[in-house]
Here is the input.
Amino acid sequence: MRGKMKWFNEEKDYGFIETEEGERLLIPGTGFAGGERLKGRCAGLEVEFTIVGANGTREASECVLVEDADPPRARRRHRAGR
Here is the structure.
């Protein structure tokens, strides 16, 4: 399944993914394939994952970054006086 990272907090070791259908899923630090957690700004990055259920809740597992996704473009800042 595919979706986009909403955020991931390295200190708290969890974050959220939004699926293509709009569902928000918890992604624990252990939910990344190969133990490779995302670092830094990851909001909006496209990911692939599986959904697992535990005790009536659904969360993402085996999450990997989609390599063919276009990186976000930097915004140009307007400089005052020019």
